[in-house]
From TrEMBL:
The protein's name in its UniProt record: SDR family oxidoreductase
GO cellular component: membrane
SUPFAM superfamilies the record matches: NAD(P)-binding Rossmann-fold domains (SSF51735)
Organism placement in taxonomy: Bacteria, Bacillati, Actinomycetota, Actinomycetes, Kitasatosporales
UniProt keyword Oxidoreductase, yes or no: yes
C-alpha cells in the first residue's frame, strides 16, 4: 500500500493549510509528485518547502484563488507547463462559512463561499480534465462534507456552505457517470467534522483512533489511498461516515 502513489502526479487545491496541507505532505511521502495550490502564494510555497525539507523534491507550488476563473485557468496552465499529465486531482478547496442564521452573512461572504466551493470545483475539473485524460490511471477526489448529504442538518455551517457542498455532491454524481467511459474515477468523501493533527508533529503519531473518538485526518488520508489504490474496475463513488 505504501507505494501506491509512486510516480503519480497529484494536483491538490487549497493545500496551504489544514487538510490540504496534510494531504500534500502525506501523499508526497508515499512517492507522489505534488502540484499544490493556495490562494496565498506564500502559503503554497511554505508547504512546498516543508515537503522538500523532508527529502521529497518533486513538489511544485502555484497560486490559485478558486473564486476567480482566470486564476484557475492560470493554475492549470502552469501545471501543464511542467507535466503532460495529471493522475489525481484532489478538489480540497472550499471556503467555510459559519452561522445557522441565513441573515448572519453578508452578500459578499455568501458569493465567495458558493463561488469557491461550487464554481471553483467545476472549473478546476474542467481545466484539469485534458491532463487527466492523458493519464492511464485518472482519478478525481472531492472533499465534500456531511453538509453535502441530502437531509443533513447537524452542522452549524451557514446555508451558503450547505449550498456549495450540495453543488459539489451533485456535480460529482453526474461526473462519475459521464467520465466512466473514459476510465476516469470520481470519488467523493463526505466527512463530518474531523480532527486534523499536524502531520509533522508528534500528535500525528499519537492521535487516539478508537470507536468513541472523532474521525481523524489520518483515516481520511487512508480512505483516499485505498480508493485510488484499487484496480481500475473498482469505482468507489463515495465514502460516508458515522458521526460520533
Amino acid at each position: 500500500m505504501h507505494h501506491v502513489l509512486t510516480g503519480r502526479r497529484v494536483v491538490i487545491t487549497s493545500a496551504g493549510r489544514d487538510f490540504g496541507r496534510t494531504l500534500a505532505i502525506e501523499l508526497a511521502g508515499r512517492g507522489a509528485e505534488i502540484f499544490l495550490s493556495a490562494r496565498d502564494p506564500a502559503a503554497a510555497e511554505r508547504v512546498r518547502d516543508e515537503i522538500r525539507g523532508r527529502g521529497h523534491g518533486a513538489v511544485h507550488a502555484f497560486p490559485c484563488d478558486l473564486r476567480d476563473p482566470g486564476s484557475i485557468r492560470d493554475f492549470a496552465r502552469g501545471v501543464s507547463d511542467v507535466t503532460d499529465r495529471v493522475d489525481l486531482l484532489v478538489n480540497n478547496g472550499a471556503r467555510y462559512l459559519d452561522g445557522a442564521d441565513l441573515l448572519s452573512a453578508d452578500d459578499a461572504d455568501i458569493t465567495d463561499t458558493i463561488a469557491s466551493g461550487a464554481t471553483g470545483t467545476v472549473l478546476a475539473v474542467k481545466h484539469f480534465l485534458p491532463l487527466l485524460l492523458r493519464s492511464e490511471t485518472p482519478d478525481i477526489v472531492t472533499m465534500v462534507s456531511t453538509c453535502g448529504t441530502a437531509g443533513h442538518h447537524r452542522s452549524e455551517a451557514h446555508d451558503a456552505f450547505y449550498a456549495a457542498k450540495s453543488a459539489q455532491a451533485g456535480f460529482s454524481e453526474i461526473l462519475s457517470k459521464r467520465l466512466r467511459p473514459q476510465g476516469v474515477r470520481v470519488i467523493s468523501l463526505y466527512p463530518p467534522d474531523f480532527d486534523n493533527a499536524d502531520p509533522l508533529s508528534e500528535e500525528w503519531q499519537n492521535t487516539p483512533r478508537r470507536a468513541e473518538d472523532a474521525l481523524t485526518a489520518q483515516s481520511l488520508v487512508e480512505c483516499v489511498l485505498f480508493a485510488v489504490g484499487q484496480p481500475r474496475d473498482c469505482f468507489i463513488k463515495s465514502f460516508h461516515f458515522e458521526q460520533v
